[in-house]
Design goal:
- The protein is an all-alpha fold.
- The protein has one domain (10-272).
- It has helices at residues 10-30, 33-60, 62-66, 70-97, 101-104, 111-141, 151-177, 182-192, 210-214, 217-231, 236-266.
- The termini are far apart.
Amino acid sequence: MTQPLVPHPWWLAALRRIAAMILRHVYLFRGSWPRFLDLTYWPTVQMTMWGFLTVFLAAKSNFFAQAFGVLLSGALLWDVLFRGQIGMFYSFLEEIWSRNLGHLFVTPLRPIELALSLMVVSVLKTTVGLVPATLAAMAIFDFSIYALGLPLIGFYLNLMVMGWAIGLVMCGLIMRYGMGAENLAWGTAFIMTPITAIYYPVAVLPAWLQPISLSLPSTHVFEGMRAILIDGAFRADLLLNAALLNLVYLTVGLVAFHAFFQVARRRGLLLNLGE
């Protein structure tokens, strides 16, 4: 006698769809060494450039001699945010370039499941790209960003979440307005570079610009990084501020992604992307 089929719980089916999307991108990179090289090349080059600049400044300034690695740590942590955003956005573009986005949404895949899979893929890409850069910093400059200790985990997670929030909005804009929004997505992170206090404290910014800077989660991360490297003090309040702001940013990103998807679906735009 045939046993009746027992349906899987909805959450298990969702996890399987998310895992399938992650596996798709893993296969893409496993079968393409140029993709892998692109992940590791630029972070290592940037780290090397800032590393030599830090060595030069340390020889000329007592400040950098006492806090060696401030610029180097800033460059590496900034790359977490940048790679987190670009890793998500680039993976989304892979679906568009292969004309696969419309096909994905013919399946039971939901927009939130696609977003979650892109988040995981961005973590994998960012980690693969930055680990060689951190190892090169240890070998060339005898500097380890891991010396930041456990706060480094908090810094990494907050920068990743902020990158996801930006990436979700950019992916949504692509769905809604097409490939014309692509250039905006590539440059968004760089727009924030002057005001997010990567290499200098918020106090050096004009007074009217400081509240804008402090509204960015990344600013609190970089301020917390300098507090450890320069003052030897861990600022839990800065990490908490970054986490609370990221909660708002990620919520806005998810809502925007879903809203843009719904508009694109109703207008039949998903099948025309990439044309």
